[in-house]
Amino acid sequence: MRRLLVAAALIAAAGCGTTTAQPLGEVQLSAADALAQTAQKAEDVTSYAADIVVDFSDQKGSSGNVRGTMLFQQKPTLASDINLSQVTFAGQPLPGGVRVILADETAYLKLDVLKQLTGSTKPWVKVGLKDLGDDVSVRQFLSQAQQIDLKSSVALLTASKDVKAVGQETVSNVDTTHYAGTFPVAEAVKLLPADSQAAIAGQLSAVKDMKFDAWIDAEGLPRKIQLNGGAEQGTFSAALVFTSFNEQLSIAAPPADQVGDMPKGAPVTE
């Protein structure tokens, strides 16, 4: 269930969809073509901000949720800030939530549980991306954090064979067209970059077909993407609500006096 949660939180259709034309700006596009255009638009986005909403349950009926925000930029340097301020399971909150900042070839992690386990006196720990060596657990954690991005979320949708437009709706005061459909996970993963396929495939391996909803604005940009899946391990619903595109963001490393080094072998994926 933890792998499903990470894939859904940290992530959120070109095919034989409906042929009914739907408005997208001044152009009439089929549902499948509209999502294909959105995938193209995503390639040109240099920065964005989004809200993250995840609800999940395991095979025993216990439920949980994740709430947070994320900032992502490609220019002038690649950086991201994922802040999961609320993480609960079976009624028990994770104290302090989880925050990961990737900046200047360094990952900064704020996790109160890790601080307690390692005896650190600093609220943040850092790991140089070029200095990971054979620390597999840290590599896996950072890989999962880096998979949550706009391009991957939209690319997965383009494997849909049944996408259709279901209406006009407003998301965060922006007019959008609402599309809905499903996509086969195994086929969708093949559309991702080679270095991302293994991580996503492993996290979603228990899900065969994913249901999705996408709200696309007149510029062809996604204002909301929601994924719903289920397997023997449990169920989840994950949504990314995009609040800005191509705006200057403030992503910076924590103050140096608040940062310690990651102890080797620290259980960050547990």
Secondary structure elements and pairings:
Elements: H1 2-10, E1 22-24, E2 27-29, H2 31-43, E3 47-58, E4 63-73, E5 79-89, E6 92-93, E7 98-103, E8 106-110, H3 112-118, E9 124-128, H4 136-146, H5 150-157, E10 164-171, E11 174-184, H6 185-189, H7 194-203, E12 209-217, E13 222-231, E14 234-245, E15 259-261
Helix pairs in contact: 2-5
Protein name: LppX_LprAFG lipoprotein
Signal peptide: 1-21
Organism: Acrocarpospora phusangensis
Brief overview, please?
Keywords: Signal. This is LppX_LprAFG lipoprotein. The protein is an alpha+beta fold.
Could you name the CATH topology?
outer membrane lipoprotein receptor (LolB), chain A
Largest sheet: 13 strands, mixed
- Relative helix content: 10-25%
The CATH class turns out to be Mainly Beta
Structural class: alpha+beta
DSSP helical segment count: 7
- What fraction of residues sit in β-strands? 35-45%
User: Runs with pLDDT <50, length 5+?
Assistant: 1-27, 136-141, 143-147
Keywords: Signal
Signal peptide: 1-21
InterPro entries: LolA/LolB/LppX (IPR029046)
Organism: Acrocarpospora phusangensis
List keywords for this structure.
270 residues; alpha+beta; outer membrane lipoprotein receptor (LolB), chain A; 13-stranded mixed beta sheet; two-stranded antiparallel sheet; disordered N terminus
Description:
The protein is an alpha+beta fold. The chain has one domain (2-261): outer membrane lipoprotein receptor (LolB), chain A, CATH 2.50.20. It has 7 helices and 15 strands. The protein has helices at 2-10, 31-43, 112-118, 136-146, 150-157, 185-189, 194-203, and strands at residues 22-24, 27-29, 47-58, 63-73, 79-89, 92-93, 98-103, 106-110, 124-128, 164-171, 174-184, 209-217, 222-231, 234-245, 259-261. Strands 3, 4, 5, 6, 7, 8, 9, 10, 11, 12, 13, 14 and 15 form a 13-stranded mixed β-sheet that branches. It has a two-stranded antiparallel sheet with strand order 1-2. Strand 12 (209-217) and strand 13 (222-231) form a beta hairpin. Helix 2 packs antiparallel against helix 5. It is globular, with a radius of gyration of 19 Å. The model is unreliable at 1-27, 136-141 and 143-147 (pLDDT under 50).
